[in-house]
Amino acid sequence: MKLLRRYFGLAPLAAALGMAFCTPARSQNLLELYESARAYDATWQSAKAQYDANLFRAEQAKAGILPSANLGAGVTRSNLDSILPAAPERNITSQTATVSASQPLYRPANVATWQQGKRQAELAQAQLAAASQDLIIRMSQAYFDVLAAQDTLAFVQAQKTAVGEQLAFAKRNFEVGTSTITDTREAQARHDLVIAQEIAAENDLRVKKLALDALVGKPDVKPNPLALPVSVPGPEPADVNVWVQQAEQSSPSIQQARTAVEIAQLETEKAKAGHKPTLDLTASYNVNRNPSGTATLAAPVRNNTGSIGVSFNLPLFAGFATQNRIRETLSLEEKAQADLESARRNVAQATRAAFFGVVSGQGQVKALEAAEASSQSALEANRLGYQVGVRINIDVLNSQSQLFQTKRDLAQARYNVLLGQLRLRQANGTLVPEDLARLNTLVQ
Prior knowledge:
Blueprint: H1 2-8, H2 10-21, E1 27-28, H3 30-40, H4 42-60, E2 68-80, E3 90-106, H5 108-176, H6 181-216, E4 222-223, H7 240-250, H8 252-272, E5 278-290, E6 301-313, H9 321-388, H10 393-428, H11 434-440
Helix pairs in contact: 1-2, 2-5, 3-5, 4-5, 5-6, 5-8, 5-10, 7-9, 8-9, 9-10
């Protein structure tokens, strides 16, 4: 590192790398930005509103087993014109009011619908959990994208500084006659290429920041960078089968598929209820008032009628509709079972892939850390060899490019492992906001 600073210039390099590794003002960590995203992200708000709607829809199913009451009232006015001489023409007003109520006593279809409503509430909970995990991943991805873009820009600027000094060194050597014009032109070409890369890196950082700002609803968000040196933790537990077993109970996808099976089974119960009788308790109270009398009586009349009883209904034949409905629901039940098995297989596959992705990413980080040290040594050796005349300028330039490319790859690999750990927990359904709090211990 001392040789690198001596050859490339201590102040410019430190300033360039400092852009990525110093703590910016008003910086925010993962958990803080997640809370901001929950309050702003339209996709999450849509999922939350759908969750609330599903809960209210589930509550509607309870109405089938609860009593119902109705109030009805009416007024009619008629004109009586009799052909009898002794009966004068007169108007007749009739006023009625009825209160009726019923309580289901035995309605198996309504009970099955109520049970379905409770399953619908469980389904809504699983859907909201999946949306929450998706928000964590989207926010974390945007967070690490900004950090990776900052690192890339810092490394490109550091490389520009190094190539600029190499270009100046080549020009001085050409002026004194110790090198050819080829060295100068190679350094100039590499310098121009790095400037183009810097422009692209600046634009990429700008785009990534805009994406993060749009997700959390705040302008000019500055995420906390990783605290160096980074010790990337591995999956815990380290057995992939344990992660797959956890998914059986925790995965929102499996929970939704399992709940769908239960709803399909209850739908079959509803279809079978088409053969069963129903029994309701009914009651009513009716008031019929004629202030001006009736057609046969001129005096005011009022009748109050109350009734209570039970209503029994037994389906006898419905044109084979009930039998075919049962066959339909049984087929849909088989489909739900197949979908559940498919969800289990997909979750298991995704969990294994995410687990081995994290393990592989850790190995890649270690390999790149070793490659960084080797590239550093190679650069120093090539620079020293160029000074003594056993290496040419292009060797030094290639070593510089290799070193900074390795640095960029190493930084990206670290972010990929951290994000991969979150994706692993999302795959088996155990991802919660507290996982972001654990990652916060790795940032400044």
